[in-house]
From TrEMBL, chain A:
Organism: Maribacter hydrothermalis
Keyword Transmembrane helix (UniProt): yes
Protein name: Uncharacterized protein
Transmembrane segments: 23-47, 76-94, 114-133, 139-157, 164-182, 188-206
Alphabetically ordered keywords of this record: Membrane, Transmembrane, Transmembrane helix
From TrEMBL, chain B:
Organism: Maribacter hydrothermalis
One Pfam family, short name: HTH_34
Domain of life of the organism encoding this protein: Bacteria
Domain Winged helix DNA-binding: 15-94
Gene3D superfamilies xrefs: Winged helix-like DNA-binding domain superfamily/Winged helix DNA-binding domain
Protein name per the record: Transcriptional regulator
């Protein structure tokens, strides 16, 4: 009887420690959807790039000038932004739904801490990418986005499910590898933001969301 | 040596355990955060925090955020040490 009461106490302690320091309502399903959006975006970008006629340019010069073709870069930026916005909205709505179910508030001190700590490396990475373009090293933008996104995930993992850490490490690894294959950024993007997100989301869904 | 030697009377209540667990993993927590997480009433929570403060297990800081008074709690070194002892005593007790 006594021992049972103490067992309950210990379980309660663990539960409260988790609930008070980690935001656990991130939706796994939204990870899967974000990955799917990324793959759709990547294939659209691929088609657009193929459309881009390389006849006026050739070889290395062609690849480089492609980055300064304004219509092309505008389209690619639009595709990227659309993917980002769609993924953010989906993630927000599904996390809101999940947090309602688990009785966790969506904007309390734990979720604030999560968002801040995620945004710090991400914003730094974004600014760094602008600098890369300023200095004409646009080829490094794709690896840099992957690496900084990975760092953001590793940093945020302390304030949410620990598994986010492993996804972050995977992103960093993919980013570093892609630095050796400049010009193939799109494939690494699809691998990271597409495939990694889907794998991670599916794992989270089976581990935490399925009741 | 009895099995319950290290069980600390000061922690032997659901709300007090809860307060300490929250303060173990967070640098600090304010009154409302504790209230929401523990589902306790104002008076109940106030009396339990006072008891823990009297033992010097938690530190209380009162401050103003704008014009609103805000009370912030954090665990003291002693409090963390005693709580760890208490938990391992509980774990031993269950193991036996």
């Amino acid at each position: 009887m006594e021992a049972n009461k103490y067992l309950n106490d210990i379980t309660e302690i663990k539960n409260i420690m988790n609930r008070s320091s980690r935001f656990i309502s991130l939706s796994g399903l939204s990870g899967i959807l974000a990955g799917i959006y990324a793959l759709i975006g990547a294939s659209l970008a691929y088609v657009r790039l193929k459309d881009f006629s390389p006849t006026n340019y050739d070889g290395f010069a062609g690849r480089n000038s492609a980055l300064w073709d304004t219509a092309l870069s505008k389209d690619l930026t639009l595709i990227a932004l659309a993917v980002l916005v769609m993924a953010a909205i989906t993630g927000f709505v599904m996390t809101l739904k999940k947090s309602k179910k688990s009785g966790e508030k969506i904007w309390d001190s734990t979720s604030k801490r999560l968002v801040y700590n995620f945004l710090i490396p991400l914003v730094v990475g974004g600014l760094f990418c602008l600098v890369l373009m300023q200095h004409g090293a646009a080829g490094l933008v794709a690896p840099a986005t992957l690496i900084f996104y990975g760092l953001a995930c590793v940093n945020a993992s302390k304030y949410t499910m620990g598994d986010v850490r492993y996804m972050g490490l995977a992103f960093i690894l993919i980013g570093l590898i892609s630095t050796q294959f400049i010009g193939y950024g799109l494939y690494f993007w699809a691998l990271g933001f597409g495939v990694c997100h889907i794998l991670y989301g599916a794992l989270m869904y089976y581990k935490y969301d399925r009741d | 040596m009895s099995l319950i030697d290290n069980i600390n009377k000061a922690f032997d209540h659901r709300i007090r355990l809860g307060i300490m667990s929250i303060l173990m993993v967070n640098d600090y927590a304010d009154f409302n955060m504790l209230k929401e997480l523990l589902g306790a009433t104002d008076g109940n929570l106030a009396s339990h925090t006072k008891a823990l403060e009297k033992e010097a297990y938690i530190k209380v800081e009162k401050q103003f955020i704008g014009r609103k008074p805000n009370t912030r709690y954090s665990a003291t070194k002693l409090g963390k040490l005693e709580f760890k002892k208490h938990i391992s005593a509980l774990e031993k007790l269950i193991g036996n």
